[in-house]
């Protein structure tokens, strides 16, 4: 079979490569770390170590693959133009530009009628004082770019907290704290003909800013907010000429769904779909970028619960494996670190 090119060498790329292999395709990973440090490389035929702004290296990589995708959105969009003479890039670079910057993604979603938390751009201490005075506290100060798993975030409970902060010299955003009764994600796949399918929305529970558990189906009070959230996600996908899997995260509130952020890629809250859906998010992403027909996103049982194995929680894998109902996934990371996603375990609800 042909080869798909994947930008990014983490566990999402690894699971994409495994799905591609099942369909007879090879994977070629492009990432900045040495090959031995990439968990995607462990299951891929080829690897290029290169930076995401090296246009010559990106072009040479693209010349060796049928299509390029990414598992990591913190890649500058402009240098990716070097890929286009050689291979298609899906999702398109515009999706990266929008999703990798919290100001861009919130403004973009607002133009489509979506509702994020109240927010203001912050470029310095004066901006922050003004934002806290305008929006109020509590709130969260976040880096506009490069954040994940709650990294690059500061909770601000009072204006005095803001005044005492030693601000990092990067673009920031201040968001009002959303009083939510639950969190959920919408994950869709959009094919090259523009058709869209959704997986069931999971209820997502976070601990210390990191996803801990995703449960499908979500409870009724969350499920009631999914249609409005899906309508927004579908508009986002159409406006971006999107191809592949797209994720939007939402807060479920008394006033309806509040948009949190989007990821132009497969998502941790969709890992349950590997065993829990007829076609997983990884398989349908691969199918979509290759222009193949999509598989059904329907549940295969009543539901599923996915627990992340974070840090040393993964050391308990022998006990997890001893329960024959568990679907255990370990990502092959050599080093266990606190807060690091080492694997996950899924249980189907019969
Ligand atoms: P991810 O790993 O999902 O990309 P991230 O680092 O981009 O995470 P966010 O999704 O912005 O972080 O925030 C992580 C979690 O912190 C959210 O899922 C939510 O639980 C909480 N949170 C973030 N922003 C807000 C907010 N404005 N109001 C209330 N809670 C929030
Ligand atoms: Mg994020
Ligand atoms: Mg998030």
* Coarse morphology: globular
Write down the Rg: 20 Å
How many helices in DSSP terms?
11
In what order do the strands lie side by side in the largest sheet?
A: 3-2-1-4-5
CATH class of the largest domain: Alpha Beta
N- to C-terminal distance = 36 Å
Task: Count the domains.
Answer: 3
Describe the sheet with the most strands: 5 strands, parallel
Domain ATP-grasp: 106-290
Catalytic activity: 5-amino-1-(5-phospho-beta-D-ribosyl)imidazole + hydrogencarbonate + ATP = 5-carboxyamino-1-(5-phospho-D-ribosyl)imidazole + ADP + phosphate + 2 H(+)
Enzyme class: ligase
InterPro entries: ATP-grasp, ATP-grasp_carboxylate-amine, ATP_grasp_subdomain_1, PreATP-grasp_dom_sf, PurK, PurK_C, PurT/PurK_preATP-grasp, Rudment_hybrid_motif
Q: Can you describe this structure?
A:
The chain has 350 residues and is an alpha+beta fold. The chain folds into three domains: 3-89, Rossmann fold, CATH 3.40.50; 118-176, Dna Ligase, domain 1 (2-Layer Sandwich), CATH 3.30.1490; 182-349, ATP-grasp fold, B domain (D-amino Acid Aminotransferase, Chain A, domain 1). It is built from eleven helices and 18 strands. It has helices spanning 11-22, 55-62, 93-99, 102-111, 125-135, 159-163, 220-223, 226-239, 273-276, 281-290, 317-322, and strands spanning 3-7, 26-31, 46-49, 67-70, 88-89, 119-122, 139-143, 153-156, 172-176, 182-190, 196-198, 203-207, 210-216, 244-253, 256-263, 303-310, 327-330, 341-349. It has a five-stranded parallel β-sheet, sandwiched between helices. Strands 12-13-16-18-17 form a five-stranded antiparallel β-sheet. Helix 1 (11-22) packs across helix 10 (281-290). The longest helix has 14 residues, at 226-239. The mean pLDDT is 97. The protein binds adenosine-5'-triphosphate and magnesium ion (2 copies). ATP binds at residues 102, 142, 147-153, 175-178, 183, 206, 260-261. Belongs to the PurK/PurT family. This is N5-carboxyaminoimidazole ribonucleotide synthase.
